User: Fold this.
Amino acid sequence: MRWLKSEELARMAIKLKDKNQIERMRQAGRIVHAVLAHLRELVKPGVTTGFLDREADSMIDRMGGKALFRGVPNPRAGYPFPACICASIDDEVVHGIPSDQRVLEEGQILSVDCGVRFEGFCGDAAITFPVGAVEENVGRLLTVTQDTLMIAVENIRPGLKWSQVAAKMQAYVERNGFSVVTDFVGHGIGTEMHEDPKIPNFVSRDILRNDILLEPGMVLAVEPMVNMGGSAVRYAQDGWTIVTADRMPSAHFEHTIAVTEVGADVLTDGRSSRVD
Assistant:
């Protein structure tokens, strides 16, 4: 989701979820987790992203869900998103379009974002997979990005301001020599894929002026996007895919996370209940 200016932030309307609604979101999250686990086994040199998309679509259908991303409008591109998953290779940050012409090669990285609606509620998660063996610095990019997501999970708790979590995420990324994408951020999620609030992985003046106080019932799609080079990104020619401006690799990890009375409850980790 694209970042907003301060006057737009001030108009946010956050919808809190009760425990029953959160459990229904967990059911959607279990489908997302299962799809990503299945695709992990399929990602290898010679496989096309179009094949991965069909596998995801078939699995979501068998499990009674509906793909969230297909049909999302985009005036910039002039056509809705045409696929089940986003499949972004190397310098593609997010929103890559799967295709049978896109054949994975040894040493690449592939970010797969999957969203599912199940019985009226949504789940959203992403993983960046190595394609075979990758260079050491690329592998470190993946590790740091995944660790950044876990920093959010470990620090989310009611009464904390989101900027306090985001500051720890940003500091960890930059301490490791990488950069946080600032043009795109996470989001609230519930009966719709994109709800308020916007969830940045960084701190800015706008964020501090319009900070978010975490409270039980918030459900957030937290998704650090981390670049090996600079933070700047741009649209590719297709109008959908976001790429790094310097063409350096980018990684993306995401979980759907509920804020509870005691901390964070990850809804896309595959558990059937909070106590699993």
The domain at 6-266 is CATH 3.90.230.10 (Creatine Amidinohydrolase). The longest strand covers residues 109-118. The chain has six helices and 15 strands.
